[in-house]
Amino acid sequence: MYAPLGAGGSGGAAPPITLLDGGMGQELLRRGGDQPSPLWATRVMIDHPGLVQAIHADYFAAGASAATTNTYAIHHDRLVNNAMDHRFAQLHDAAVTEAEAARAAAGGGLILGSTGPLGASYRSDLMPPHETGVGLYAEIAAILAPRVDVLVGETLATLSNVAAFLDGCDRGAPGKLRWISVTVEDRDGTMLRSGEALADLAPYAARADGVLINCSAPEAIDQAIPVLAAFGKPFGGQGNGFTQITSDFLKPNPTADVLVNRPEMTPERYADFALGWAAQGATLIGGCCETGPEHIAVLARRLRAEGYDIV
Over the chain (311 residues), what is each successive 10-residue block's mean pLDDT? Predict the structure, then answer.
């Protein structure tokens, strides 16, 4: 196996870090030149084949240990609304194929099979009934599991969404490694965006192989890290570079142009936050929206300078 997937070290030495990649969707917008749309990151695999692979390659070159598949938004409801549901399996295949090609060119690495929240990002009110959600996640898990190292449920905003993801993995890919990655309130990192306490994630974390915070302000992840550390599983964070999740982005069919980046969240500034998480025992560290290969390159350099092995 290429990496111990965030497992801690021994003998008091700093544990090795599994350095995750950064954002995909914003990079695709910058490089593709297309107008933002609700499925901008999905259509790009049809309109610009090879672009996703190039971004994965840049993250590997920057020092990342993993490629996160560009499958976050490939859900039936998003595709039906955009007359693309007939491409469900094809899009998953295309995304994994581009990650596999980048890994082969890099000479190794992990492939993380991403799936996003049901309903919409950050919207705790759009979660479907549990059994419906389990079936949806089971279908995705069965597609991804044979070709990825870990299944990752990303940007989960509610405990009910976490439960559906885990039960779906049990049904669709029993025994496959899986991480849960939740999103927390930007002003209170001890709360999920649903208002539920992050500490209440404990029984779900016990069923996972890793637990992270993603697509949240780095300052909020600072608050969340001690809670994650108490779960006894590999943990970490992938912060975003947005000023905040605006009300416009919570409307139906949002596009990325309603979100504003933080110009002060430079690669060095972001690395300051991430080094703080590593100092508290985090071993799964990377970036999310508005972080790019340059952030991962600086983070890799800074981690090594502090004596961490990247695996």
Answer: 48 84 90 75 91 98 98 94 94 98 98 94 82 98 98 97 98 98 96 97 98 96 98 97 51 47 83 98 96 97 98 97
> What is the token pair recorded at 182?
């939740």
Task: Kindly tell me the burial class for residue 292, based on how many C-beta atoms sit within 10 Å of its own C-beta (0-12, 13-18, 19 or more).
Answer: buried
Note whether 296 and 22 are within 8 A (CB): yes
- List phi, psi (to 5°) of 259: -100, 145
On the CB side of 60, CA atoms within 13 Å amount to: 22
The distance from CA 15 to its chain's CA centroid, rounded to whole angstroms, is 21
Query: Residue 200: what residue type?
Result: D
C-alpha–C-alpha distance, residues 85 and 146, integer Å: 22
* pLDDT at residue number 258: 42
**pLDDT confidence of residue 5:** 66
Spatial distance between the Cα atoms of 78 and 184, rounded to a whole number of angstroms:
23
Q: What are phi and psi of 56, to 5 degrees?
A: -55, -45
239 forms bridges with which residues in the sheet? 287
Number of helices followed by number of strands (H, E) in the chain? 11, 10
Complete DSSP assignment for 91-122? HHHHHHHHHHHHHHHHT--EEEEEE--SSSTT
Phi, psi of 135 (to 5 degrees): -60, -40
